[in-house]
Amino acid sequence: MTTSIHQSDSEFHVHHDSDAAVGRRERLGVRLLIVADGSFLASMIFSYFYLRNLNNNNAWLPKGVNHFSTASAWMVAIPFIVVAIVHRFGTYDKHVRVITSVVSVLVTLVGIVYQFHQMSHMPFMAHDDNGNSFFNGAYATNWVLIAGAGMFHYLLTFFIALGILIRTHTTNVSPELEVWRQKTAQSWFTWCAIAGVLTAITLSII
Amino acid sequence: MTTLDTPRLNARPVPNPAKSLITKLNMGTGVVVGAIFAAATYWSLYSLLSTYTDKVRDPLTSVNDNKILLATMFMWSIGFLVGIGAFIGPWRWLIGKDLSDEEILYMAGDGQGWKRYFKYCTDHKVVGMQYLVGVMVMLGVGGTMAMMIRTDLAHPGAKFLVQTVYNSLVGLHGITMIIAMIIVATGPFGNFIMPIMIGAYDMAFPRLNALSWWVLFTAIPVLCSSWILGGIPTGWTAYAPLSVQAGPGMNAFIATIIIFSVSTAVAGMNITTTVVAMRTKGMKWNRVPIFVIGSTISVALAIPAFPTFMASQIMAGLDRTFGTGFYETLQGGSGWLYANLFWIMGHPEVYVILLPGVAIIMEIVPVFVRKPLFSYGAAVAGMAGIAGLSVLVWAHHMYVAGWLPSMNGPFMVTTEMISIPTGLLFLVIIGTLWRGKPWMKLPMLSVFALIWNFLIGGITGVYLSDVPADNYLHGSMFVTAHFHYTLMGAALTGAIAGLVYWYPKMTGRMLHERAGYISFWFTQIGFNVLFFGMFIVGAEGQPRRVLDYAALYSHANLISTLGAYSVGIGMIILLWAVIHSWRHGKIAPMNPWGAKTLEWTVPYPVPLTNFDELPVVTSDPYNYGKGVSS
Lengths: 206, 630
Fold this sequence. Notes:
heterodimer, A: mainly alpha, two-stranded antiparallel sheet, 3 strands, elongated, B: mainly alpha, Cytochrome C Oxidase, Chain A, 66% helix
């Protein structure tokens, strides 16, 4: 391989590459992690429809067992959609970012509380002879995993939204890099909104 | 244009509170904090759950104990990462006080000597060496288990091991070796060598690079704990509902896979981003060394594959602990759900293992034949084709399970189609060798070994992809021999070739050549004796994973066991050569093989930032015999 010395336009370490180079790289990395998360989501949706169509023992939703309403599935998705839209407005303007970040944090908190409330009031639990609780039917089984994944998305979104809020006041990173990081966060928020909609559609087909 | 900021390289940590915390954390503090987290979790959950359980219960069989054990294992992992300082970066990001230049430099291990190998060090060379040692330990443990299995199978009658221990050994050997083989090439060489090969200062995400290793590290004691907890009775595939009903040792398997999947996703993302975004100027895609292409395709394939494995194990964990019924027919679940999720990961995973090993061989051949790589495009197309088809073949593992028999035909076709891109790889290797005069040094021997082993592994794979033949051979020793020829005979042979080839760059010394030759012949002859015999007994009907067998198969099994001992001797000699040469080997020149890729342009020890100034690439890496480079 023939080489010559290149007077570097980036510096000695990742931290010293140009802001745009670092920013693009971080966004690509996050998008690849979204691919992994998307694969996990696809596994859950596959499980949901596979067991629904098998309906082994007629136990997808046994008689007399309640389920969550379609509306409740969409209620979980709405905060994600709001955060994704609101964040977009604050990407380039630091002053607007304070307001959008506060809104994002609060909306995410509402989502966390709502998801937690759902998980603590599941209508399909039953108990065996030994007193151990179990999920009555495959719908219930799949619901709890999807809800858990939704909670994971909420917690990570909350962490990022809170970080963005705090960093509007205190950060020692260049403004340009910070804008790139807003774009990177936007990738995650947009994905969470898409995932929220996909799970809402899934859970609407009972 | 700017030049390298040399004074920064010599910067030393300046005292500040956050810095002092970083300096105090290491593997020891990680173990202590991890143990505290684990103990606190165990104690508090045990107390809490016992409060609600008014009956006397067997402490290691109830649903509650599965909850306690799984939570303890995950908290060990999280605690260790807290204790070693993995979360300092995210925390500092959250509060808006990003790490300073000096802190970044400290985390890169600047001026810390051997101690940096026991810290949350972000230098990709350090991470590569950590992976190398970790892989060698895992291969040693897995190989020892293989020796025990073969010793038991040397004669019919099963006098060496009892059934439960044998079952656990088979499962643990399988999962230990699978994990080791997934990281055997992309771990050490993908981290140490690959960034230098593409002319990068570092990996794209140095902190995540360290995270991928240390997360994996936390899985090792978790997997080992399965011994104390009664072992893994299911084999490495851990089919449900067997895994749901298995004893507490199964929790260790589940936790290990979930932790490992996180590590793999992070590592895959990091390597892919590095190759896509950090290639030096002039390194167009058609100038990227073939090992880098192979590794990138491999890890890019792992990114979507392993989350399905993770999902399958989370579902098994939930079934065991919270009363869900993913795999419980009575609750509307299905064992086939597990089989599908497992093999949707499981077959791409074979190529995640295989591709880097074959790519190493394709990297080595032009160097030792002094000819350009024959049809670089075919090599890339072959690997990409294999990766693309690998996600469409998973159900060939389920022909005889009865899942969707009408799909057996299509899956047979897609599986057999993989022969085509695989044939391209053979074409490239043989085409490069054709009419060449190989320089028969140690790495070159592995090229011929791989051609032989991979050919046998590949051809027997065609038999197994065929539905009628698979109906007969499924579950037999024939299958065991086939995948060992592929994973060990091809992928591990390629990885060992990589170790010998890059050993001078990684350690500054040449590997003990005579020991290397002896090891090679012991290993390769033993390997073929070991597994060729298995083809014969498998074709005659000996089932795999079974402790005892009919006297009919005794001679072939004894020969196989003798072959296994030969492999063991070969591996011990290689281990001795690696350790001995590390300290006492001949000092290596900067480019002992006369290769043209960028890693050979940097001295040993490789500087912290690899290059004084970034190189510019002006030609392809295999332009041997095309005149003198300018």
